[in-house]
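A.,

Following up on our hallway conversation. Structure tokens first:
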């Protein structure tokens, strides 16, 4: 182990271990949120522009954030999304495209109300589509895009089972050069609802932990890798030593006792 070659290999192992240790420290730094949002911050209504930008992902601490947004619904773009639950009861959401008041064309998907009857939901969406788009100011919770999903085989091709602005965008009108928010808004119960629709149950999100245990696990893995670099150096050096000892023993055995 004191030979120049193995001392060089030790220096290389030290370098590898240092890189692994740095990666572990980096993961550990990401695992612990040193500046978590204060408790109840999601219940303070903020302008949507202060929370997320169009096209941007909603950061995890802000999922469920209550926001205020002004705009006008686009007639003809009220659609029904199935597989929606209110207090454990399966039903349907009526959703719309809210054209937000900004300098550039920007839209936000809004879940307006819920019904456990598909016909009631369809009738409500049809009635809303017949109304001109009036200016409104909405408050509600921002929720992350659930991602699009293929319609069920037994249902129509237009059936949507996920609340996904990306999927809704494919059915909206006047979308050329349109900016779209990735999250969607669940409108508050206080907003005026069409006949037959009830308010969507949207409780406050649970307070999350300030520790990301997955990143803690990754940090521990990097520490193990750093230790493994030293073990590999020791194991290789020991194997080389054992081969030399074995070769010397074989040479001694081949020479035979003195006088033969």
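Then the amino acids I'd put at each of the 260 positions:
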């Amino acid at each position: 182990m004191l030979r120049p070659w193995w001392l060089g290999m030790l220096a290389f192992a030290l370098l590898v271990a240092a890189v692994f240790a740095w990666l572990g420290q980096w993961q550990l730094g990401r695992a612990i949120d040193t500046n978590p949002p204060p408790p109840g911050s999601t219940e303070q209504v903020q302008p949507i522009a202060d929370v997320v930008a169009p096209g941007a992902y909603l950061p995890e601490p802000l999922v469920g954030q209550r926001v205020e947004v002004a705009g006008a619904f686009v007639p003809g773009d009220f659609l029904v999304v199935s597989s929606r639950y209110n207090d454990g009861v399966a039903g349907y959401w009526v959703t719309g495209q809210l054209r937000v008041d900004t300098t550039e064309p920007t839209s936000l998907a809004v879940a307006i109300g819920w019904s456990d009857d598909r016909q009631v939901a369809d009738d409500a969406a049809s009635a809303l589509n017949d109304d001109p788009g009036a200016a409104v100011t909405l408050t509600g919770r921002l929720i992350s895009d659930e991602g699009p999903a293929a319609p069920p085989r037994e249902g129509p091709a237009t059936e949507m089972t996920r609340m996904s602005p990306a999927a809704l965008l494919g059915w909206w009108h006047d979308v050329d050069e349109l900016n779209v928010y990735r999250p969607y808004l669940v409108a508050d119960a206080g907003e005026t609802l069409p006949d037959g629709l009830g308010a969507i149950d949207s409780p406050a999100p649970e307070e999350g932990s300030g520790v990301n245990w997955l990143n803690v696990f990754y940090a521990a893995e990097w520490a193990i890798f750093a230790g493994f670099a030293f073990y590999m150096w020791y194991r290789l050096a020991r194997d080389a030593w054992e081969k030399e000892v074995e070769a010397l023993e074989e040479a001694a055995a081949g020479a035979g006792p003195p006088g033969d």
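The helical segments are 4-31, 118-130, 165-169, 213-255. Curious whether your intuition agrees with the design.

B.
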